[in-house]
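SAMPLE LOG
Freezer: B-3
Tube label: C17
Construct: single chain, 123 aa
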Amino acid sequence: SLFATKRQKSITLVVSTTGDTGPAAVQAVADAGNRLMTLLVHFPKGQISAFQRKQLTTANSPYVHVATFEGDGDDMDAPIKNILATSGLKSGNSSFVCGVNSYNIGRPLIQLVHFVWTYLRVA
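STRUCTURE (predicted):
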């Protein structure tokens, strides 16, 4: 929101979710209320909890758009990659498209501990 406003360029954020990334993005964009920032959220029909579906579909913001799709969480990867590849920031454009993903520091830390533990057991 800060960079969109500072640069006066609109940003369309695209996310496909089966977990917490979508609701977090929805809340962030809804709270920002910035006309320069739009969020497109996709989730697989029947594959998220009722609580997460409510988090996604009850945001009261004109900048948040939510759609379901048939399939599993990975079925939106290719369409989103295609959207991102064909809509890059070009010289003179007043807008751009960006993907949203979450990365929890706990994942690599646990993987590191597991790697060291395995190494120590084998070595």
